[in-house]
Amino acid sequence: MQNFIANALQLPVLQGDFEERYGTFKDEALVEKGIELLKGLKDAADAFGNVVTESRDIMKYIGTDTPPKSLFAHGVWLASKIESIAMNVSNYAASAIPALEKETDPKNGQRI
After folding, report:
1. Are 102 and 79 in contact (CB under 8 A)?
2. pTM of the model
3. Count of alpha carbons within 13 Å of 41, Cβ hemisphere only?
């Protein structure tokens, strides 16, 4: 995935860049459609995020309520939030269950 992102971010999405890299073609409509498709790939790669730079920056989002914009960083942030919530639930259950086992119903004195 990292190679795809790196390559997609370098795609020629402007007419001049395309012609510089690939030359000119008689069928301008086909070239325009090709550039449109390349732009779509570049936009998708942009939305996913650069794994290398995002990996370095992700720690500033961990522990906050503000998710990063890129899909990669957002996924890492979300996994961190889920792990934190799971740990909180686990810790609560570990302390609450023994206390609840000692509770009795005030009406009949039996354990709840």
Report:
1. no
2. 0.57
3. 17
